[in-house]
Amino acid sequence: MGNILNFYRDLGVEYLNTKLNKKEAPRNAGLKCLKELKKEVEKCQACELHKTKKHYVFGDGNPNASLMFIGEAPGATEDEQGLPFVGRAGQLLSDLLKEVGINRQEVYIANCLKCRPPNNKDPQENELKACRPFLDKQIELIKPKIIITLGRFALMQLLGNDKKITQSRGLVFKQQSYTVIPTYHPAYLLRNPKAIEVFVNDLKTAKQYLGD
Ligand code: URA
């Protein structure tokens, strides 16, 4: 698959239509706004993570955002504050948004998981599955034009488990109701500062697609 993507990228192809994920039906299709959805999330006991978390981390930002970011799962600082991307990786994200002229208040930021996995363990299949209807409903309510996936878990959730970050980043995936731009997770950038330039370029690509 990677070779095929590289082949198309070398040809200068920017868009690849990919199959839509088969999504589970939202648990509560009647929800009309994010506030109602947040209340639903805060009652969730669908997996074990609710037992160890301090706060549910629902998501934050402009409910009418055209640009949405999806990360992996809350870390320790997010768990403390109940807000996404407020730790070191979040600070870097804020700084890089600022660098390209994107106002953090104007975008919406959410995670695949709404509860922190203890010891920052990778999200497990059952946890992702349990949380997925909430993410789908957030996307449905926010209706972003562009979704930037941060790291491999968000990428796989949106585009399928066969997607690899190294092969997908740099490509733009047109879906039925939004366009996905995969990029690195800000925590990866903390460990690999050389990748920051590429990340910034991905943010600029998103801006171009938004017509900014
Ligand atoms: N990493 C994530 O994926 N999400 C957060 O909210 C914080 C760190």
From TrEMBL:
Its EC number is 3.2.2.27. One of its GO terms (biological process) is DNA repair. It is an enzyme of class 3 (hydrolase). Pfam families: UDG. GO terms for molecular function: 4 iron, 4 sulfur cluster binding; metal ion binding; uracil DNA N-glycosylase activity. Keywords: 4Fe-4S, DNA damage, DNA repair, Hydrolase, Iron, Iron-sulfur, Metal-binding. Belongs to the uracil-DNA glycosylase (UDG) superfamily. Type 4 (UDGa) family. This is Type-4 uracil-DNA glycosylase.
